[in-house]
Amino acid sequence: MIVAIGSLRREAAGIIRSGEYTAIEAPEDFVAYRSESEERPAIVLSGSGTDRSARATKWAIEEFSPEAIISFGFCGATKNYARSGDIVIAARVLDLPGSPFEWSIVDDTNSIKPDRTLLLAARTAVEISGLDFHHGTIVTISKVATTSGAKKWLGEALNSTAAVTSAQTIAATSSAAGIPWAVVASVLDDRDSDSPSVVDRLGSGPSERGMTAYIKHVFNTPQDIPALMRLRRSSTRASASLATFMTAFTQAHTALTKVEQPETPE
């Protein structure tokens, strides 16, 4: 079994609808789903942040004993050619700890690379499904990059393609347990767009309990309404891309695994 680990319900919404998933019991305020199809991956949603994603990954390993783990979710583009709904496949993942004020000192020695077979399955999935995609570095940062300046700096200083908030932790935890992994993200916002500040104040849980924050923000800052509407449309596109990708990825991984299995001698 493969386990797909993400952060938020809205990231997994399309995958859950397309895969006949049922919610199962999970610890703390994590959310987990299992599909009626044995070929579909189990889904674990940790909420935002590296601490939550590390604990959710450890629980998923203990609960499912997965053969592989795939980290999925939304990302911010850090290159000007990536557009909302594009898929980014990690050639490597990198952790950039601390606040933006500490980012001037870049240490990329903690970068790690995904499993070759999973990477091939991901590349096959985007090719056969016709999704626009990019292959490059995905950097993990402590908070969502909401400004175009921050995203541009991440792209230039690290030559990264996208920024997320949990992928490196999932990858490192999987590696420590000896489990193959891959990281795939769907672009939510373009590099040159600024997001309303409210998106960084919606709580850490997977359900994003933040409607009150949205209402208060719109009431106090009505000029952000167009940006929030664009963000909602982008979220719909990004979620749909992840759903399309996951279906194709499951098929590609199954086919590749069968090819790589040695024939049983008679």
Description of the structure:
By secondary structure, this protein is of the alpha/beta class. The chain has a single domain (2-260), classed as Nucleoside phosphorylase domain (Rossmann fold, 3-Layer(aba) Sandwich), CATH 3.40.50. The chain is built from 7 helices and 9 strands, in the order E-H-E-E-E-H-E-E-H-E-H-E-H-E-H-H. Strands 5-8-7-6-9 form a 5-stranded mixed beta barrel, surrounded by 4 helices. Strand 6 (87-95), helix 3 (116-129) and strand 7 (133-140) form a beta-alpha-beta unit. The mean pLDDT is 85.
Quick recap:
With 266 residues, this protein is an alpha/beta fold. It has 7 helices and 9 strands, in the order E-H-E-E-E-H-E-E-H-E-H-E-H-E-H-H. It has a single domain, classed as Rossmann fold, CATH 3.40.50.
Whole-number mean pLDDT: 85
Low-confidence stretches: none
Tally of helical runs = 7
Q: What helical percentage do the residues reach?
A: 25-40%
What is the CATH topology assignment? Rossmann fold
Any idea what the CATH superfamily is called? Nucleoside phosphorylase domain
> How does CATH name the architecture?
3-Layer(aba) Sandwich
